[in-house]
Prior knowledge:
alpha/beta, disordered N terminus
Amino acid sequence: TESVGIRGSYHEKEHYKGWCKESLANTKDMIMHKLGVDKVYVNKKIFIARKNGGSSNVANYKELASLLVDYGYTELDPGDMSVKEQITAFSSASHIVSVHCEAMANIIWTDSSTNIVELRSSENDDPSYRMIAGMRDMKNYQVLFCDPVDPHDRGISDFVVDTTGMKLLLNEYV
């Protein structure tokens, strides 16, 4: 299926290739304009976590949150925000650390120079958000693969973030 532009995903859905960069950029600009969101880029660092999101939770959340606060990050929960608030927050971010979750779709609103670290279980390698980052020519997109809490749980499982590895990434991108 890869040769015809379709690849299977982990949830028996299909992802289609073929989005073009121009279409994504035009759609982004049109929606931001219609919602009255200015293209703002400031030195704002945000952290998107799933404290109780059902799956893909950070088991050592308190330790990670404390570390990120020390590096100047503010935690956001896009589920508690309007679409306009989400677009405004992501479009003004210079740095984003996020658990692999639906909130990562908001990277379409970021500047292409935004530094992004995606946190995910080493048992899950769905490349959807890396594909968006690639289409947006984002050069500063990193994935930190984390150890699952239950090594027998395949796919979208809770995980432990290696804070030493996280510090190395933060020091590189600060």
